């Protein structure tokens, strides 16, 4: 119905006897393919043929779609330009198509780039060129008479939103949907595992490092769990003290600060170091942790830490782990030797 009404409105233009003047059209537009032909160049009046009227009707209801596999100069009469490969599509002069909207699509897979260029001195949103790199990406551009406005942008592809593109504090908690931040997207927790102590022992009555039990960890400000574990070899993993020369000791050290100490009674063997652990409360930063030991001062004693590794990791949920640590610590107070000597965990405050 609308097409029929438009046809009736344009019907007077078909009369050869009474041509109508269309002041906004001129010879230049006729030369560039507008659907008009000159009748009287002296008066700048025009008439339309049936053929040109059909072209006008078609352009009103059916957008011009171009599919190109080569560089292309987009025409003012085009509406949609589809392309593939590494191509450059140049937009028409914005001054000749004010108000006209164009869409430029990329049809092939990632690995090629369609570059959208502009006439000299013209831009789109201030950009002198635009690029499409993702399959089915599209830019919608509308002429504003001097350049182009970007009225539609391509989809955001993986890795496109970088930290530099986000305004400080612009992503607030309210903008993040519940459950949207998955475990895979969270920053990795710091965790480090040392080499094995192998057969580590000392008769020194002052603290020395247990061989290889040193780690460096960078934290995000969470508490750090320290513990000794078996080294995974087919060897006995234990720590303790020989002879009757007084108590020996094993200690956790952060940097140069002793943060906990474990007493080993003479002739005691802790069958497995799982009960020896410590939770260190620190700010975000980089820390060096190590294990030290010393023999009893009564003479003849040897402290040993055999086939163990030092593990340091940040805690995400603290209370269940503290419950677990407490249970392990209680278990560590079992008697290990026939003469009723025991190993026990005793945190010391070191000044």
Structure report:
This protein is mostly beta strands and about 350 residues long. It folds into three domains: about 15-50, no CATH class; about 65-150, Jelly Rolls; about 190-345, Jelly Rolls, CATH 2.60.120.760. It is built from four helices and 25 strands. It has helices spanning about 1-10, 25-30, 50-60, 320-330, and strands spanning about 20, 35-40, 45, 65-70, 70-75, 80-85, 85-90, 100-105, 115, 130, 140-145, 150, 190-195, 200, 210-220, 225-230, 240, 250-255, 255-265, 270, 275-280, 285-295, 305, 310-315, 345. It has a five-stranded mixed beta sheet, with no helix packed on it. The longest helix has 14 residues, at about 320-330.
């Amino acid at each position: 119905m609308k097409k029929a009404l438009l046809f009736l409105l344009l019907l007077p233009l078909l009369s050869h006897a009474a041509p109508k003047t269309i002041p906004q059209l001129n010879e230049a537009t006729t030369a560039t393919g507008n659907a008009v032909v000159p009748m009287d160049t002296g008066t700048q009046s025009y008439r339309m043929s049936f053929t040109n009227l059909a072209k006008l009707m078609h352009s009103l209801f059916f957008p011009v779609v171009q599919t190109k596999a080569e560089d292309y100069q987009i025409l003012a009469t085009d509406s949609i330009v589809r392309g593939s490969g590494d191509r450059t599509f140049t937009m028409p002069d914005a001054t000749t198509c004010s108000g006209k909207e164009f869409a430029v699509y990329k049809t092939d897979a990632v690995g090629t780039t369609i570059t959208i260029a502009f006439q000299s001195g013209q831009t789109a949103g201030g950009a002198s060129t635009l690029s499409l790199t993702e399959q089915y990406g599209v830019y919608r551009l509308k002429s504003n008479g001097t350049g182009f406005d970007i009225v539609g942008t391509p989809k955001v592809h993986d890795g496109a939103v970088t930290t530099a593109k986000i305004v400080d504090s612009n992503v607030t908690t309210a903008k993040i949907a519940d459950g949207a931040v998955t475990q895979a997207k969270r920053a990795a927790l710091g965790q480090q595992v040392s080499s094995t102590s192998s057969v580590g022992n000392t008769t020194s009555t002052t603290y020395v490092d247990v061989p290889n039990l040193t780690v460096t960890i960078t934290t995000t400000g969470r508490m750090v769990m320290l513990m000794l574990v078996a080294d995974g070899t087919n060897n006995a993993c234990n720590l303790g003290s020989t002879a009757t020369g007084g108590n020996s000791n094993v200690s956790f050290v952060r940097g140069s600060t002793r943060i906990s100490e474990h007493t080993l009674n003479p002739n005691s063997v802790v069958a497995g170091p799982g009960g020896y652990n410590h939770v260190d409360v620190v700010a975000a930063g980089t820390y060096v942790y190590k294990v030290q030991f010393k023999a009893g001062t009564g003479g003849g004693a040897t402290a040993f830490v055999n086939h163990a590794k030092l593990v340091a990791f940040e805690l995400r949920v603290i209370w269940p782990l503290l419950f677990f640590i407490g249970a392990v610590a209680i278990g560590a107070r079992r008697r290990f030797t026939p003469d009723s000597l025991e190993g026990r965990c005793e945190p010391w405050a070191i000044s």
